Amino acid sequence: MTMSYRSRATWDRGGRRLGRGMIAVPAILLVVLIFGPLVYSIVLSLYKWQITDINSGKPFVGLDNYVRLFTDPQVLNAVLNTIEYVVGSVGIELVLGFIIASALFEMTKGRKLANSLILLPMIIAPVITALIWRYMLDPQFGLVSQVLALFGVKGGVPFFGSSQFALPSLMLVDIWQWTPFVVLILHAGMLGISEEQFEAARIDGAGRWRILRSIVIPGIAPQILLVLLFRTMDTYRIFDTVFVLTRGGPGTSTETIGLYTYQTGFSFFNLGYAMTLSVFILVTVAIISGFYLRLLRRREVFQ
C-alpha cells in the first residue's frame, strides 16, 4: 500500500514537471517570436533610420517620430480613408450577413449546399480575389462594364481610376469576400437558440418580425460583437487588396494606414518612422479590441 502511494506521488510529480515543460516551450517561443520583435519595433521607433542615407547612421531622436506622426497630414488622410473603409465594409457585411444567415435559418431543404456555396469566396486568397476583381471591374473589357453597357452605360466606369469610385470599389471586393464569414458566425449563433423560445413566441401570437427582433437578435448579440471585433481588426489593417488594386491611388484617395506604413518603410526606406506607424497601428487595434471585449464581458454579465 505504501509503495503504491509513493509510486503514485512520484508519477504525479513527474506529470507536473512534464506539464510545466510542455507549457514552458511554447511560452518561450511566444515571447521570442512575438514580444521580441514588438519590443524591437518600439525601440527602433525612437531612432531616425533612413537606410538610403549611409552617412547619417541611426541617431536616437526620442519622441520626434511620434511628434511627426501627429502632425503628418498623410497620416490623417490615411486614417480617415481607413475609417471610411472599415465603417463601410463592416457595416454592409453585417447587414448582408444577417439577412443571408436569417434566410438560411428559415430554409428546410438545401441548407448544407447553400452553406457550401456561400463560403466559397472566403476560402480564396485575398490577393487572388483582388486580381479577379481587377479584371472583372476593368473599364473596357471587364464583366461588370459589359453588363453595364447592356443598360446604356457606355465607355465603362473607371472603378479604380477615379477617386470617386476607387474606395467604394475596394469595399465591394472586401464585402464580396468576407460577408460569408459573417454569415457563418451569425448562422451558427441562430442555430444555438433553443427551439422552445420560438415555440413559446408562436403560441403567444408573435409574428416573424417580432421573433426576429425579440429572440433572434438578442440571442446572437455575442456573435454580432465577435463579428464586429474580427472584421474591424482585419479591415483596419487592410493592405494586400489595396496594394494589388490601387497602390493607394488615384493620388492618395485609397491610401490606408497599413499601406502608408509599408510605403514609408519599403518605398521611402525610412524604417524608424515606419516602426512608429506600426506601433500606432498596434495601439489603435488594441484599443478597438479592448472596447469590443469589454462589451462582450458586459454582455456575459447581464445574461
Search tags:
303 residues, MetI-like fold, 2 domains, 13 helices, globular
Secondary-structure blueprint of this entry?
Layout: H1 2-44, H2 64-69, H3 73-106, H4 111-118, H5 126-136, H6 143-150, H7 166-191, H8 195-203, H9 208-219, H10 221-236, H11 240-245, H12 257-266, H13 271-302
Structural notes for this entry:
The model has no long low-confidence stretch (mean pLDDT 88). The chain contains 13 helices and no strands. The protein folds into two domains: 1-44; 63-302, MetI-like fold, CATH 1.10.3720.10. 73% of the residues lie in helices and 0% in strands. With 303 residues, the chain is mainly α. It has helices spanning 2-44, 64-69, 73-106, 111-118, 126-136, 143-150, 166-191, 195-203, 208-219, 221-236, 240-245, 257-266, 271-302.
Write the CATH homologous superfamily of the largest domain. MetI-like
Number of strands: 0
Q: Which fold does the CATH topology of the largest domain refer to?
A: MetI-like fold
What is the CATH-assigned architecture of the largest domain? Orthogonal Bundle
CATH class of the largest domain: Mainly Alpha
Low-confidence runs: none
Using the alpha-carbon principal axes, give the shape: globular
β-sheet strand percentage: under 5%
What is the average per-residue confidence, as pLDDT, rounded to a whole number? Answer: 88
Main sheet, how many strands, which sense, barrel?
Answer: none
Whole-number count of domains: 2
Number of DSSP helical runs: 13
Helix content: over 70%
Name the assembly state.
single chain
How big is the Rg?
Answer: 26 Å
- Topology as a string of helices (H) and strands (E): HHHHHHHHHHHHH
Structural class by helix and strand composition:
mainly alpha
Distance between the termini: 50 Å
